Amino acid sequence: MKSETIHNLQIPKIGFGTWKIGGESTPDPSVEERSLAALHSALELGYIHFDTAEYYAGGHSEELLGRAVRASGIAREKLFITSKVSPEHLAYDQVLRCCENSLRRLGMDYLDLYLIHWPMRGMNLPETFRALNWLVADGKVRHLGVSNFNLKLLKESVALSEAPLLTNQVSYSLPDRTCVKNGVLAYCQEKDILLTAYSPVKRRNIKSNKTLQAIAKARGATPQQIALAWLAQQPRVITIPMSFDPQHQAENLAAAEIILTETEMEQLGR
């Protein structure tokens, strides 16, 4: 499995996002069975990095992920589990409480990575990081990161994190290159910070991008695989696609093994 090596860690280029697992902003019983089946198949296929959040399905996503991991029999230390604290919970005591709640829902003793899910206007970032740093010192969290942070806030976070900041998770895909235009990607690559790309595949772009379609056809791959390969081939970029379909999950995981030529990367990057 292709991975990024950073701060003595090996993190897979392709992880598994859990947005819509168990519901969206609140639990949805109608997707319970489907959600557990998706998690079971992802674990069986060999996914290692699972990305969740207290916001996802009102915490139920974390509960289902924990259940699936326990049912799989896979040792906890073989997995890399990310969760996130919501922007309305960034006060010192709230961060500590939310992390404990996430761990309880997951049924785990620690998180490999804990992120601020979104910045909040008027937030006291030094206080938030005081709590996050304490969680690392206490062993509840192994690594820290942020999500949806612009360059200014990312630089502030780097200064406030006592351990090297591991990631900034942002929307990044062939049609959405905001993180390139605003300097976030270049800063991450320069400072040895992972950029975790969420929403890596836009369905409308898959159909309309003729270059993507042509490269996929020539390589006997799906356009989605090429879109993921384009991300995975970039230094310090990892991505977390999600699918309920076991075949699509397998295709997503295999996308990291596709090596695009310089010409193909350039064509897609135009």
Textual characterization of the structure:
The chain is an alpha/beta fold and 270 residues long. It has a single domain (3-202, 237-242), classed as TIM Barrel. The protein has twelve helices and ten strands. Strands 3-4-5-6-7-8-9-10 form an eight-stranded parallel beta sheet. Strands 1-2 form a two-stranded antiparallel ribbon.
Summarize the structure.
The two termini are 28 Å apart.
- CATH homology superfamily name: NADP-dependent oxidoreductase domain
Please, how many helices? 12
Poorly predicted sequence stretches spanning 5 or more consecutive residues: none
Could you say how many structural domains there are in total? 1
Q: How would you classify the helix and strand content by structural class?
A: alpha/beta
Radius of gyration: 18 Å
User: Would you tell me the overall average pLDDT?
Assistant: 97
N-to-C CA distance? 28 Å
**Main beta sheet: strand number and arrangement?**
8 strands, parallel
CATH class descriptor name? Alpha Beta
Query: Order of strands across the biggest sheet?
Result: 3-4-5-6-7-8-9-10
Strand content: 15-25%
The fold-level CATH name is TIM Barrel
- Rough shape? globular
Number of strands: 10
Helix content: 40-55%
The topology string of helices and strands comes to EEEHEHEHEHEHEHHEHHHEHH
CATH architecture: Alpha-Beta Barrel
Name its key features.
single chain, 270 residues, alpha/beta, TIM Barrel, eight-stranded parallel sheet, two-stranded antiparallel ribbon, 12 helices
Secondary-structure blueprint:
Layout: E1 3-6, E2 9-12, E3 16-17, H1 32-45, E4 49-51, H2 60-72, E5 80-85, H3 92-106, E6 111-116, H4 125-137, E7 141-147, H5 151-160, E8 167-171, H6 178-181, H7 184-191, E9 194-198, H8 203-208, H9 210-219, H10 223-232, E10 237-239, H11 246-254, H12 262-269
